Amino acid sequence: MLAMEMQGCGQCTPIFEHQELSEQLEQSTLTPGQKDTVSLMLNRKDQIVGVQGLASTGKSYALQQTQKLLNERGYKMVALAPYGTQVNNLREDDIEANTVASQLTATETERL
Fold first, then answer.
1. Burial of residue 45, with CB atoms counted within 10 A of its CB: 0-12 exposed, 13-18 middle, 19 or more buried
2. Domain boundaries, the chain
3. Assuming Cys at both sites, which of 37, 53, 82, 109 could form a disulfide with 57, CB separation 3.0 to 4.6 Å?
4. Closest to 25 in 3D by CA, of 49, 13, 51, 43
5. Does this model's pTM top 0.85?
6. pLDDT tens per residue, range 40-84
């Protein structure tokens, strides 16, 4: 997974320019930490972004808002999680998700 993340570093054009994204997030109910998380995902050039945090810190809500902004631009987001229970929780929040293992064992044509 880390090799895939490294291969995707700097490979994309940021989805939003900094100022435009700041304006979008200004109107949201996200906490400052959640806004930083969304910015990390939408204002960088990396294809894969890791989000880590303690339980109940709002990661899923930040992902929902990220997914909404991506969908509005015609992009698709798929979250990867280590365990099936985490994948199920993300899916319950209407976030498309798969396990890391399923991504690692997928053939090249099946990958995201």
1. exposed
2. 2-105
3. 53
4. 43
5. no
6. 889 888 777 888 877 888 889 999 999 999 999 999 999 999 899
